[in-house]
């Protein structure tokens, strides 16, 4: 095992940008599952076993692994975790998103689920909010400037998204459920609303939901006789009754995985930043340059 070297195993463009970030910080980086690419820069492309054998840290994709297979998007060769790869993981610091499968496969290893880190979730809110604006610009036939928008939820994403929409001159209403959040919403220059009091979407051109609970239900939709564009950002099952919206010809988009789709570079850099922070805080790692 080589100190201060990192294996980035499989995944999409995000993992590649994550690997490049590690290399920029001066670490030796082995990648596996990217052999269809031509130019690797400072990255060392190799098979999964060699990558693991030469590294002290293993980074798996944000989407986790499926069974014993690591998803690959830039290779025709399957990336499998067989017996010797699982053995090689035993003395590694392992990072993986949605880590349940890898934890059940390799019982004696310590796995950090970076997807569950608060730092990752906060940093990811900006690319998600920008992605939501991108979806709105693609699907909405008017301008965001001058539109009436509703952002449901004032958590990580709701805070940033409502500020972005305000900066684009939308008339923004933001719903929340906590008294202190109403004060922040007013301080942002936006209009507050209690999430419980949403009973129609009639006043809005654009509606963004961030609440992971059914807030735009049948009743709200049936009280709506306009055709707002609804963009639901909440993870599956989301917060919108999509069947009723469809039956009423109201466009409702479940816009998921926006950081990966809209800004893979930033999403990958956020992953690298989160992982390097854990390595620094818990293992004393420092930049190598
Ligand atoms: P968050 O910080 O937890 O914010 C969620 C908001 O929903 C908070 O304002 C919370 O209120 C409110 N809320 C939760 N349950 C509620 C309920 N039953 N009634 C009323 N309000 C409720 O979460 P986030 O990071 O902004 O993420 C929001 C959602 O987007 C999550 O489902 C997350 O998995 C998903 N997500 C999507 C993408 C994408 O690409 N689409 C990317 C990342 C995350 P309090 O503050 O009062 O608790």
Key terms:
six-stranded parallel β-sheet; binds NADP nicotinamide-adenine-dinucleotide phosphate; 289 residues; alpha/beta; single chain; elongated
Write a structural description.
By secondary structure, this protein is α/β, with parallel strands linked by helices. It has eleven helices and 14 strands. It has helices at 13-24, 48-53, 83-89, 100-105, 118-139, 156-167, 179-187, 218-222, 242-247, 258-262, 264-283; strands at 5-9, 28-32, 44-45, 57-59, 69-70, 79-80, 93-95, 111-112, 148-152, 171-176, 191-194, 206-209, 229-232, 252-254. A six-stranded parallel beta sheet has the order 3-2-1-4-7-8. It has a six-stranded parallel beta sheet with strand order 11-10-9-12-13-14. The chain has a two-stranded antiparallel sheet with strand order 5-6. Strand 12 (206-209), helix 8 and strand 13 form a beta-alpha-beta unit. Helix 5 packs across helix 6 (156-167) and helix 5 (118-139) packs antiparallel against helix 11. The structure holds NADP nicotinamide-adenine-dinucleotide phosphate. NADP nicotinamide-adenine-dinucleotide phosphate (NAP) binds next to helix 5 and helix 6.
Any idea what the radius of gyration is?
Answer: 22 Å
Shape verdict: elongated
The main sheet comes to: 6 strands, parallel
Average pLDDT, all residues: 95
Structural class: alpha/beta
Distance between the termini: 21 Å
Uncertain regions spanning at least 5 consecutive residues = none
How many strand elements? 14
Helix content: 25-40%
SS summary, helix count = 11
Q: Helix and strand string, N-terminal first?
A: EHEEHEEEHEHEHEHEHEEHEHEHH
Report the sheet-strand fraction: 15-25%
Bound molecules: NADP nicotinamide-adenine-dinucleotide phosphate
Question: Order of strands in the sheet with the most strands?
Answer: 3-2-1-4-7-8
């Amino acid at each position: 095992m080589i100190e201060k070297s990192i294996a980035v195993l499989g995944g999409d463009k995000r993992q590649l940008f994550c690997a490049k970030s590690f290399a920029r910080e001066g670490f030796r980086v082995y990648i596996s599952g990217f052999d269809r690419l031509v130019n690797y820069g400072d990255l060392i492309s190799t098979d999964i076993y060699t990558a693991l054998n030469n590294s002290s840290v293993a980074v798996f994709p944000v989407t986790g692994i499926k069974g014993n297979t690591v998803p690959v998007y830039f290779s025709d060769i399957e990336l499998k975790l067989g017996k010797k790869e699982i053995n090689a993981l035993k003395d590694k610091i392992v990072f993986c998103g949605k880590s349940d499968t890898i934890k059940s496969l390799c019982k004696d290893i310590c796995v950090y689920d970076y997807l569950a880190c608060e730092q990752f979730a906060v940093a990811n809110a900006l690319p998600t909010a920008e992605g939501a604006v991108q979806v709105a610009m693609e699907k909405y036939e008017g301008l965001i400037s001058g539109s009436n928008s509703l952002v449901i939820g004032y958590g990580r994403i709701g805070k940033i998204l409502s500020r972005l929409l305000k900066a684009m001159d939308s008339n923004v209403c933001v719903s929340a459920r906590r008294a202190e959040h109403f004060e922040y919403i007013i301080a942002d220059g936006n209009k507050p609303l209690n999430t419980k009091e949403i009973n129609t979407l009639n006043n809005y051109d654009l509606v963004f939901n961030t609440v992971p609970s059914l807030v735009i239900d049948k009743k709200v939709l049936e009280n709506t006789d306009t055709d707002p564009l609804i963009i639901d950002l909440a993870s599956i099952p989301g917060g919108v009754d999509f069947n009723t919206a469809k039956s009423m010809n109201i466009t409702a988009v479940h816009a998921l995985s926006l950081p990966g789709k809209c800004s893979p570079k930033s999403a990958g850099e956020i992953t690298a930043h989160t992982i390097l922070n854990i390595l620094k805080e818990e293992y004393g790692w420092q930049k190598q340059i």
